[in-house]
Design brief:
The complex is a heterodimer of chains A (about 80) and B (about 425).
Chain A (H helix, E strand, L loop, with lengths): L1 H18 L21 H15 L14 H9 L1
Helix pairs in contact in A: 1-2, 1-3
Chain B lengths: L2 E5 L2 E4 H17 L2 E5 L3 H14 L2 E5 L5 H10 L4 E6 L3 E6 L12 E5 L7 E5 L1 H5 L13 E4 L6 H11 L4 E4 L5 H10 L4 E4 L1 H10 L11 E4 L6 H11 L3 E8 L3 E6 L6 E2 L10 E5 L2 E5 L6 E3 L10 E11 L2 E7 L4 E3 L2 E3 L1 H9 L4 E11 L3 E10 L7 H11 L8 E4 L15
Parallel strand pairs in B: 1-10, 3-4, 3-5, 4-7, 9-10, 9-11, 11-12, 12-13, 24-25
Antiparallel strand pairs in B: 1-2, 5-6, 7-8, 8-18, 13-14, 15-20, 16-17, 17-19, 19-20, 21-22, 23-24
Classes of the chains: A mainly alpha (about 80), B alpha/beta (about 425).
């Protein structure tokens, strides 16, 4: 199950990188979504919206929760 | 045999209508104020005709109203007769003991949901509600009209009165998608169609290859912003004898009629010397009209004392014409910048391969709010998100380019053929 969310986050990050004209890179669980990809906070916002659509879950319902890496973001959806 | 209405497959002649009028007249005569709650166009039309002719006051509840909403109206106003149901499930009525009020002038009350969704009750006289039916041209007498609007709303009533007072036949299309509209228009040789730009776009998109198009004497667009794209689309597809776009509202009636096949309206319409007067205040259109409502109930502001009604629609002046650019109250705040969703929609809908779209605000934990767009592509076209962002970026400042774009299979449309704003 956990692995599924990591895969989903990776897919979504790549999707948004493509939408923003960035060349795809190889993503790991430990990849920092902002620092390592060239994405900005606006793109990060889009990633979160897309994940909400795909998982039908909103871990930020109660407010913002910090995360940096792909694993950390995926973990929020596992809860 | 002269037909008054075609409802699905059912053809209703003038004689059928006369019979119903005779049947209901006694009970309508007993009461001063009548409330109708029906999805059945025949029952509604018979009721409207009777009330107008007998001088009753009529409350026209939309068919989607719940019983609680209807009961609320009855508790607020001295309604003596409630008529509900329809031909299929049976027409029922309830009578209430109400004192007759001799000072009351006959009126018709309609509900408007506007773009925000809270129903407002708008009071018209029988003259103001039916005013535009008297300007229907002689060449449109006895023609066949399409009903594309909810029957109980202001727009639907305009079609009803226009057809009814000009010996027309009205075609009501059974629910279940735009293909039904295409087939009915073709089969019954509809000659006069009025609809929203969204209605026309979806109608043309759904039109099957090979289905004969009716010869339209009059095509009218209104209810939403009319762009040059959609005017051209309707003009090329149906080649109507006359192509008109109108600006009207439940509150103000029909205020602007444009027939030069160009979007927007000429600036000299502001001082045309006609009965309907227009002015622009803080980029918002204001209207003074003899056709306007007599009262607005349950709204933030009552009907204004001086007769001028603020439309809430923003306009921009460009090369001697005013163009509508969105609702004053629909403005979206994206990181401190104001965005009119309609402006962005007009740009997206103009892109190659795009059928229609809706732009809205999506709350976001990271940056507060995102500008989002749902896009419906034309059949068989494939456009990517990066492509759309790139093309929009060339036409609009960055903050007006939706960050979140998704492709959808349909755009939700209200009973009146307007896009439903989230």
């Amino acid at each position: 199950m956990a692995e599924n969310y990591v895969t989903l986050v990776k897919e979504t990050v790549l999707e948004v990188m493509e939408e923003n004209g960035l060349s795809p890179i190889s993503l790991e669980g430990s990849t920092h979504i902002l620092q390592d990809t060239g994405l900005d906070s606006l793109a990060l916002a889009v990633i979160v919206v897309k994940l909400e659509e795909k998982t039908e879950k909103d871990p930020f319902e109660e407010g913002f929760v910090t995360f940096n890496t792909i694993d950390e973001l995926a973990a929020l959806y596992e809860a | 045999m002269k037909l008054d209405y075609i409802i699905g497959d059912e053809k209703i002649s003038r004689d059928d209508v006369s019979q119903l009028l005779d049947q209901y007249e006694p009970i309508f005569k007993k009461h001063q104020q009548v409330l109708i709650h029906t999805a059945d166009p025949l029952i509604q039309n018979v009721s409207v005709r009777l009330c107008e002719c007998l001088g009753n006051t009529l409350f026209l509840c939309p068919s989607y109203f719940t019983k609680a909403q209807v009961d609320h109206v009855i508790s607020e106003y001295p309604v003596g007769l409630k008529l509900y149901g329809g031909q299929t499930e049976g027409v029922h009525y309830r009578e209430f003991q109400r004192p007759r009020d001799l000072r009351q002038d006959p009126a018709i009350y309609v509900f408007t949901t506007g773009t925000t969704g809270t129903p407002k009750l708008i009071k018209h006289t029988w003259d103001t509600i039916s005013a535009s039916s008297f300007s229907v041209g002689d060449h449109l007498q006895g023609q066949t009209w399409l009903m594309s609007y909810a029957i109980s709303g202001y727009a639907g009533l305009q079609v009803f009165f226009s057809a009814d007072k000009n010996s027309g036949t009205i075609v009501y299309v059974p629910q279940g998608g735009f293909l039904n509209y295409c087939k009915s228009m073709s089969q019954h040789h509809v000659a006069i169609v009025s609809g929203t730009p969204t209605f026309w776009r979806l109608l043309i998109n759904a039109w099957p290859d090979g289905l004969p198009k009716p010869h339209l004497l009059q095509a009218t667009l209104g209810g939403e912003i009319v762009t040059q794209d959609v005017l051209n689309l309707v003009d090329h597809f149906f080649k109507p004898e006359r192509l008109t776009h109108i600006y009207a509202s439940t509150e103000a009636g029909t205020a602007i009629v444009v027939s030069d096949k160009k979007a927007g309206f000429p600036a000299d319409a502001l001082d045309s010397g006609k009965k309907v007067k227009l002015k622009i205040k803080d980029n918002v259109l204001e209207i003074f009209s003899p056709q306007s409502m007599k009262a607005r109930i349950g709204a933030d502001q009552p009907a204004p004392d001086d007769g001028w009604i603020s439309s809430g629609d923003r306009v921009v002046l460009k090369d001697g014409r005013y163009y509508f650019c969105g609702r004053q109250d629909g403005m979206i705040n994206i990181g401190g910048s104001k965005v009119l969703p309609e402006e962005v929609e007009m740009n997206i809908s103009g892109l190659q391969g795009v059928e229609d779209c809706i732009v809205y605000e999506k709350k976001n934990p990271i940056i507060g709010a995102l500008l989002a767009a749902d896009i419906l592509l034309k059949n068989g076209s494939s456009v990517s998100v990066p492509q759309i962002k790139k093309e929009l970026g060339a036409a609009l400042p960055a903050y007006k380019v939706p960050q979140y774009i998704r492709f959808v299979k349909e755009i939700a449309v209200s009973e009146n053929g307007k896009k439903i704003r989230k």
